[in-house]
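Form 7-S
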Amino acid sequence: MSTLLALDTATEACSVALLHDGKVTSHYEVIPRLHAQKLLPMIKQLLEDAGTTLSVVDAIAFGRGPGAFTGVRIAIGVVQGLAFALECPVLPVSNLAVLAQRALREQGPASGEQDTRRDIGERNHRTTSNDVEQPAEN
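Output:
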């Protein structure tokens, strides 16, 4: 079974997680502007809590944004350094896609009401021969 290290610093929160031997261990802290100081110690603590070492990591995932530019850069720098040292692949993950997947899992597909609003919006616009969308004439 693969071991995956994941981290996210795109928001004021800083989070790290490890999937190892089928078990997920994670740490999460809201620490505005302290990601650079806290991220590596959080990873070290996470590995200690899981009873393993960095050498067992098979791949590293990170939140690639959208999010705070500096936070995303911190994640990219840490991940790049670790992946280079471990000779393992990097998996950039869209923070927006993660939020959408979580909402889908927790709340199910979008409701019919949302589809109806989209349909009404489409009926209120027409496309010209130049493929420029214009408001429909009522």
